[in-house]
Write a structure and sequence with these properties.
- Pfam families: T2SS-T3SS_pil_N.
- This is Pilus formation protein N terminal region.
- Keywords: Signal.
- It is built from two helices and ten strands; from the N terminus they run αββββββββββα.
- It is globular and about 50 Å long.
- The protein folds into two domains: 69 residues, Sandwich (Immunoglobulin-like), CATH 2.60.40; 44 residues, no CATH class.
- The strands form three sheets. A four-stranded mixed sheet has the order 1-7-6-3, with no helix packed on it. A three-stranded antiparallel sheet has the order 2-5-4, with no helix packed on it.
- The protein starts with a helix and ends in a 10-residue tail after the last helix.
- 28% of the residues lie in helices and 39% in strands.
- A hairpin with a 5-residue loop joins strand 6 and strand 7.
- It is of the alpha+beta class and 159 residues long.
């Protein structure tokens, strides 16, 4: 009987400590950003430097002294630290980057990955980690479109 009581007491301590950890994690500030979308963040004092833990997941720029623009780049979680001119922290937040649409489908074919957006018809979208040659084609198309919108000649067609 004493063994059962000791085991129960041990399990109770483990569950209570897990609950405290979960509560501590929930109280930590979190910013939810969507992939390929921007979000405005305002800070209480003039920001001088922004640090992103993993720049492959998100990006942040200082628009003006108290306004940041955060952009989700790929799925995941990282942190964001904002410092003032003296190097003192203004903000220390967790960034969670998630899908903007719940209708994305990822297909794996061998080592290749393809992402489709299905709403209602499926069309390809390209995410970091998708098939490399398709991402290169997309990059060329984006650069050509940018040059056209600026009034310049598009990139040469390499066909």
């Amino acid at each position: 009987m004493k063994f059962a009581q000791a085991s129960f007491a041990f399990l109770a301590i483990v569950f209570l400590s897990m609950g405290q950890t979960a509560l501590a994690d929930q109280s930590y500030p979190m910013i939810d950003v969507k992939v390929d979308r921007a979000k405005v963040m305002r800070v209480s004092r003039a920001a001088s430097m922004v640090i992103i833990g993993n720049p492959a997941i998100a990006d942040a720029t200082i628009k003006d002294s108290q306004t940041l623009i955060i952009t989700g780049k790929q799925y995941g979680t990282t942190n964001l630290i904002v410092l003032d001119a003296e190097g003192e922290p203004i903000a220390d937040e967790i960034l969670s980057v998630s899908s903007a649409m719940d209708s994305n489908v990822v297909i794996y074919k061998g080592t290749d990955r393809f992402t489709l957006h299905c709403s209602p018809d499926c069309e390809p979208v390209y995410r970091v980690g998708d098939q490399k040659d398709k991402l290169a084609e997309l990059n060329t198309s984006i650069q050509s479109r940018g040059q056209l919108s600026e009034g310049g000649d598009p990139a040469p067609n390499l066909e």
